[in-house]
Each structure stands twice: as structure tokens, then as C-alpha cells.
Design a protein that fits this description.
The chain has 320 residues and is mainly α. It is built from 15 helices and no strands. Among the domains are: 65 residues, no CATH class; 89 residues, no CATH class; 61 residues. The longest helix has 33 residues. It starts with a helix and ends with a helix. The relative contact order is 0.06.
Length: 320
Amino acid sequence: MMLIILIFIFVLLLTFTVIVVLTRPSTVERTVEGRVSNIQPGNVYFADDVPEIFKHTRLSEIDWVDNFLQRWNKAHEIRLLITQAESSWGVTTVLVSSVVLAAVGYGVGYYELPNWMTDSVVACAFALGPYLYLRFKRTQRLKRFNQHLPEAIDLISRALRAGHSVTAAIEIVGEECPEPVRTEFREVYRQQNFGLPTREALVQLARRVPSQELQFVVTAMLLQKETGGNLVEILDRTNEVIRQRLRIEGEVRIKTAQGRMTGWILSLLPVAMFFLISLANRSYTRLLIDDPMGRKMVYIGLAMMVIGALIIRKIVNVKV
């Protein structure tokens, strides 16, 4: 009996030793674990209550410039705008381009009207060029995302009906849907693989893509996760609402296209004609610039043009 007990203890100790030797972390795993444990939250522009997969992204190749930009919240907003626009630019590229365009705008304004206040306004308008270009690209990318979002929701519903999990359905969307839906949902799937809960991954998706249609989908999925219910039925109803909303938005844009075109023409044509006439016959426009009454007329005309453009924008910008 004692021999059997000793053999059992020997086998137990041998098994435990083998398990410890085979399961102990390797040198690479210990190194990775040490690096992960040293990660500290940096300058994150999302809300503090949402966990984030921390990745230090340099905003400049120059150390002191990078340190300054990391502490400047506006630089992180610009980086987020670049990401949303899916642009290859960097934060320093946007800032340097704005400074260069501001100098060019000041020179153009000084050439036509040597007044520091007017020249500063022209310089600010030129400096906003890169920012407006990124916003335009973001708007176009957002339109493409909204166009393909109903298809992505249908794909998720079909995957759930087939018995797949929500994570697997998101993976399918990240592989099958067109861009940019594929990229964004693939990022959600990667974050889940890294251990981020589904709720936080969906919240971050809604923050990366400022789309009201996507907000509907994320809200519906989070509510179903909290309260329960048939997720497939909820997604189908949400998808129907999104399709109707996109249809109505398309009809509104068609009916307001003439008004938008009128606003652009009335806003840009006087400025363009002034510079073209000035290049063709500078003495013809100098009378308006050199005379004090002419300068007042220019200021009043520009102010009225801005007010008119804002009124037209308010009329044609119909909320759905």
C-alpha cells in the first residue's frame, strides 16, 4: 500500500514538473509582457472612460516638435481628421502647408490692397485651405461609407441568421464589404482580438466615423446587448430606417442642387472676376482700391456677399 502511495506521489511530482517546464514563458514572451506592463496612457483624444489600445504615434520626426504636438490637443484633432479623411498627410504637413499658404495669401492681399487687416483676413482664408481639403475628403469618404452601410448591416443579419456570433459577423463584414466600410469593421475585429470588449470597440467605431446612420446601428446593437431581444430583427428595422433616410437625403440634395450651385456662383464669381480684371488691366481696378470710398464699397460688398452666402447655405441645408 505504501509503495502505491509513493509511486502516485512520484508520478504526480513528475507530471507537475513537466507541466511547469513546458508552460513557463519564453524569453520573448517575458520581454513582451514587460513592455506591455510598462505601457502608460498618453495623450488620448477619446473620452477617459473608454479603454483604448495605446499606440504611440509620432506627430513629427523632430523630437521637440513631436513633444510639443503631443501636448497640443488641436494636433490630435488634426490627426483624427486625417484618419477620417484617409489621407497620407501628417500633422506637420498640414501645419506647414497652412503657414506657407498664409504667407502666399498675405502676399496676394498686399499686392492688391496694402492694408494689414485685409491682408490678414486673406492670409487666414488661405491658411484654412489644407483643413478644408481634409474636411472635403472626409465628407466624401463618409458618403461612401453611408452608401455601403446598409449592405454591411444586411451581411451582419445574414451571418447571425446562419448561426455566427457578432464577432464573426463583424469579421465577415471586414472581409466582404467595399471600402471604406471594410477597413473600419476590420479595425473593430482587430480590437476585439486584442481583448477590447465589443461595446468599447463599437463606441470607438462610432467616434472614428461621425455618421448618424452608424450611430443608429451602434446604439441599436448596444441596447440589444444591455436589454436583450432579437438582434436580427432590430438590425433589419434599423436598416430599413437607414435606407429610407438615405433615399430622402438623396431627393433633398437633388431638389436643392440648383440653390447650392447658385450660392457657389454668387460667392466666387465676383472675387474671380475682380482678380482676372486686375491681371488684365490693373489700372482699371486700382481706382476702386486707391480711393477711400472705393475701399469702403469693397468692404461692404464683401460683408454682404458673406451674409448672402450664409443665408443661401441655411436655405439649402435641409436636415433630414
